[in-house]
Design brief:
Layout lengths: L2 E9 L3 H8 L2 H11 L5 E10 L2 E10 L6 H6 L4 E10 L6 E8 L5 E12 L2 E12 L5 H30 L1
Antiparallel strand pairs: 1-7, 2-3, 3-4, 4-5, 5-6, 6-7
Helix pairs in contact: 1-4
Organism: Gordonia rhizosphera NBRC 16068
Pfam families: DUF2505 (PF10698)
InterPro entries: DUF2505
């Protein structure tokens, strides 16, 4: 059975500025440079931004020794994560997008959708994630571990986004 997580990040910046930031290659390159403190192999694999929206593919390698013991029982070598994230064309009322993360020969899937909505004090990005692990007996524990780590990632990325917008836009 898949597990689902909803997460909202609130910003004081208007939705248009958050969208503008995420539609800029430098935003993603700076994010990957920051991730290199944790994992030395992080890169923007591809990036497209035009009138139809934006799409970015990120690749990050996490050393097996950095993984929690439960994950080490499943993965016998470094974990290479390919993450795709997109937003459609900017809509001042509601901009929709999605995201996925995959691991070659990984034991599950991670898919989600996101919405960028204006608020009276700025904007909110709502992310809804569904995680499914296909290993009997430990699937629930791995799914929960993934979701906990995802909340930490979303929180750190929200702080990064707010800071990047203030410094660059």
């Amino acid at each position: 059975m898949a597990r689902r997580l909803s997460y909202s990040a609130r910003f004081t910046e208007p939705a248009e500025k958050l969208f503008q930031a995420q539609s800029t290659l430098k935003y993603w390159e700076d994010m990957m440079a920051g991730f290199q403190m944790i994992s030395p192999h992080c890169e923007v694999d591809s990036f497209v931004s035009d009138e139809t929206g934006m799409r970015v593919v990120l690749k990050q390698t996490i050393g097996r020794h950095q993984l929690p013991p439960l994950a080490q029982t499943v993965l016998m070598k470094d974990m290479v994560i390919t993450r795709e994230e997109s937003f459609g064309a900017f809509d001042p009322d509601l901009t929709k997008g999605d995201y996925t993360a995959s691991i070659p020969a990984g034991p599950g899937s991670l898919n989600g959708w996101q919405e960028l909505v204006p608020t009276e004090t700025g904007c909110t990005i709502r992310k809804t994630t569904e995680v499914k692990v296909f290993i009997p007996f430990i699937n629930g524990k791995l799914e929960q571990l993934m979701l906990v780590n995802l909340v930490n990632l979303f929180r750190a990325e929200a702080e990064y986004a707010a800071d990047w917008v203030k410094k660059n836009l």
